[in-house]
Amino acid sequence: MRYATMTACAALVLAYVSGPAAAQGAKPLRKCAPDAVVSGTVCMDRYEASVWRVPDPRGANKKLVKKLQQGKAKAADLVAGGAIQLGVANDDYAPCSDSGQNCLDDIYAASLPGVKPSAHLTWFQAQAACDNAAKRLPSNAEWQAAVTGTPDPGPDNGTTDCKTTGQDTTLTGSRSACVSTRGAFDMVGNLYEWVADWVPRSTTCGAWSAEVSPTGDQQCLAGAATTGEPGALRRGGSIGYGASAGPLAIAADTPSLANSGIGFRCAR
């Protein structure tokens, strides 16, 4: 009985550390939808998400929603269907609320090149937008695997480097050197990205070792709060972070936080 219990516990630990795909013995993927890249057992969105309100998603735009869910919709398809991009300049997601209520069949996440990535949304709204598009937020481990190979930023040359300076985000995929080995763009800089995991909310920042992060990527997971909301992880850094953005940049903020510096990308 004791052995069986220990075996069950070990299986749970494996599932927690490695994720559901590893716990089930899933094999690496060979192909993903056009809007995503292969990263191990996961299809990671190629671009930071843009969020769209699609009118009449169960009626006139039923086929458009299907294309979105298959990763085949283009910006022109969305515009032709009367969809409106949200979160470009402000929080205009209502009636989809900060808590994720009233979001079903309302807001949809898309992975598109050449558009402004959407921001100003909470973790709950990001998760809902992914869910409506038949996707999900990636786990922290999945995000870390997909970012591998993205340059750890130095000075931003304003054209090809990861967007880590200035006052405004750049169009998705427009920084040609800001791409991971897997082919995912803008995982460093532009917008911080929500991921699925929650941890105790941090109250201060620590530091990575110089061997792991020579440029000093942000690490704000110290001083765990004992009251209030938990911490939802965000990754990669954003504009204005300079060298503290990077493949290891990480912070834990309240999942109800929404501002101009946080966006997301989805996974399947």
Would you mind describing this structure in some detail?
By secondary structure, the protein is an alpha+beta fold. The protein has one domain. 20% of the residues lie in helices and 18% in strands. The chain contains six helices and twelve strands. The strands form four sheets. A five-stranded mixed sheet has the order 8-11-10-6-12. β1 and β2 form a beta hairpin. The longest helix has 17 residues. The chain is globular and about 55 Å long. The protein starts with a helix and ends with a strand.
Strand order of the largest sheet: 8-11-10-6-12
Low-confidence parts, pLDDT < 50 over ≥5 residues? 1-23
Shape: globular
| Rg of Cα set | 18 Å
Number of domains: 1
Fraction of residues in β-strands: 15-25%
Based on helices, strands and strand pairing, what is the structural class? alpha+beta
The number of helical runs is 6
Q: Percentage of helical residues?
A: 10-25%
Major beta sheet summary: 5 strands, mixed
Secondary structure: number of strands: 12
Mean pLDDT: 90
Distance between the termini: 37 Å
Spell out the helices and strands N to C: HHEEEHHEEHHEEEEEEE
